[in-house]
Write a structure and sequence with these properties.
This protein has helices spanning 12-22, 82-101, 116-124, 129-139, 144-160, 193-196, 200-217, 238-251, 272-280, 295-300, 307-319, 338-351, 368-371, 373-376, 385-397, 428-435, 468-473, 475-488, and strands spanning 2-6, 28-29, 37-44, 57-65, 70-77, 169-176, 178-179, 191-192, 222-230, 259-263, 285-287, 325-331, 355-360, 401-407, 416-421, 439-443, 448-453, 458-463. The chain is of the alpha/beta class and 493 residues long. 41% of the residues are buried. Iron/sulfur cluster is lined by residues 179, 182-183, 186, 188, 190, 230-232, 265-266.
Length: 493
């Protein structure tokens, strides 16, 4: 436990996040008893006796531990001007914690979900790449590799979105919340298909109603991306898949569509018939996700397929004519280190997917991995920057380049997730959910829609219930939730 005492708490969140980044999410508490480390933050400034105006002062960090360690770090900063002082204050604390732990953090003081945003904004303002690089390494103390990748991703995004007209466009997400089994690390809405097979028909019927409603409400806008995810949509039968895609095509105008993606995440859910049904229905991009090519790990994480099945499913998909196949892998899975990751990468290199997404293992609250943490903690080493560097090398050697990047707070080591793709095979939906540039209309159990209020510079969300039975029973209410936001957006209906 880490004891944190602050004279004022304007920077409370920044200081806590920095502590958790250095000490792997160790609990930060306000009582000293039982804590092994203590950080006291004081602030002193001069005050004009007549006007009461405060001038620039000094922030002091006093760090002590239960072994007698003591250090003091001071930073001159106008405490009240958060915009001007935040980075300096965080950098001062970073230097102190780095000296204490002997650690450097690849992302330095950057703790947000979208570290590429800085590069995007600076590029938009015409700032030179060299200066952007310095901003990352000098202001935020990132390692040069992270500055490079952020600039590269931001430039690719700019290129990808250059002819988008956000005001006129929207994306659709359709959730199929069924899977063959539940992965150990899963925090999504997902139910075992074996227990829900007889409800799939009713679920689809409810989904069609929601789709028809959204399609009608957005009839004057241009649908640019459809993403059918989950869950594992490919656990549906070939006939159900055909019907589902058929309904999407019938409900929405696809005149402006740039991509049609379906998640076929679990190789064991695929058959030749299903792949042909998807291809025939006009699906352009699919994902077949190995996560790892080690059968022992697959068993451990609750995925009921083998590496062989991944290879067979991939070959079947190519055979069916898919020329845009993504593969997802996870770095830092339980029981896995660098050796296992290199094995996975060498197998993937053989398959030559059109895009590769690497996630750093995140330990999310709702996941069984978290609930059964005591059982797995000795097996989880997490991802490392060396692992992500190995993925980066493998991707580039395979002709794939980074095009989106984001971080999650539950990743040990505070690393990132990165999507690599061959030129022209990028999935814009992946970027759009992070960038929040246009409305995402999400349908199905657990689906969360995002409505962008551009003029007011804000976003509103409408969330659907997660439970499948509830969704079927309350789909009208889900539509009403959306209707309220449609109306607030100035009556697109
Ligand atoms: S395949 Fe995806 S949605 Fe399904 S259980 Fe695994 S992580 Fe969850």
């Amino acid at each position: 436990m880490i004891y944190l005492k602050q004279q004022l708490d304007l920077y409370d969140n920044d200081i806590r996040v920095m502590l958790q980044a250095f000490f792997d999410n160790e609990k930060v508490v306000r009582t000293k008893a039982g804590s092994r480390l203590s950080l006291v933050v004081d602030y002193a400034c001069k005050e004009d006796e007549e006007t009461g105006a405060k001038s620039e002062g000094v922030v002091t960090f006093s760090l002590t531990d239960d072994k007698g360690y003591e250090s003091v770090e001071k930073e001159a900063a106008d405490y009240w001007d958060k915009k001007a002082s935040k980075n300096r204050i965080k950098a001062a604390l970073y230097r102190q914690l780095s000296a204490y732990t002997g650690k450097t953090l690849p992302w330095g003081t950057l703790t947000g979900v979208r570290p590429t945003k800085i590069a995007t904004e600076l590029l938009e303002n015409g700032v030179a790449e060299e200066a952007i690089h310095r901003e990352y390494t000098d202001t935020y103390l990132t390692i040069p590799q992270k500055a490079d990748i952020c600039i590269e991703v931001a430039k690719r995004e700019q290129q990808l979105f250059k002819d988008f007209q956000y005001e006129e466009e929207y994306c659709v997400y359709i959730g199929i919340p069924f899977c063959p089994s539940r992965c150990l690390y899963c925090s999504f809405t997902s139910y075992p298909i074996a227990d829900y097979e007889d409800k799939a028909g009713d679920y689809l019927k409810a989904l069609y109603r929601e789709m028809d409603f959204v399609a009608e409400a957005y009839r004057n806008k241009r649908l640019v991306s459809i993403y059918v995810g989950g869950g594992t949509p490919s656990v549906l039968s070939a006939a159900q898949l055909e019907e589902l895609i058929g309904h999407i095509r019938q409900a929405f105008s696809l005149q402006y569509l740039r991509e049609f993606c379906v998640e076929c995440g679990r190789p064991d859910s695929l058959t030749e018939e299903k792949l042909q049904a998807l291809k025939k229905s006009g699906v352009q991009r699919i994902s077949i996700n190995p996560q790892t090519m080690s059968d022992d790990t697959l068993k451990l994480i609750g995925r009921a397929h083998t590496a062989r099945q991944t290879k067979d499913a991939f070959a079947m998909a190519r055979q069916a004519g898919f020329d845009n196949i993504n593969m997802d892998i996870i770095a830092g899975l339980p029981g896995e280190g660098m050796e296992e990751l290199l094995h996975t990468l060498s197998e993937i290199r053989e398959l030559k997917p059109d895009s590769l997404t690497v996630h750093s293992l995140a330990i999310k609250r709702a996941a069984n991995l978290n609930r059964e943490w005591e059982q797995y903690r000795k097996l989880v080493f997490g991802s490392t920057n060396e692992m992500l560097t190995a993925v980066d090398r493998c991707a580039r050697e395979s002709g794939l380049f980074p095009y989106y990047l984001y971080r999650q707070k539950n990743i040990p080591g505070k690393l990132e997730n990165i999507g690599y793709a061959a030129e022209g095979k990028e999935c814009v939906y992946n970027i759009l959910i992070m960038e929040e540039k246009l409305d995402i209309l999400a349908m199905g159990a657990g689906a969360a829609s995002k409505f962008i209020f551009r003029d007011e510079n804000r976003i509103e969300r409408a969330e659907n219930v997660k439970n499948v039975d509830e969704y079927i029973a309350r789909v009208d209410e889900m539509m009403e939730r959306k209707q309220k936001l449609f109306s607030r957006k100035g009556g697109v209906v």
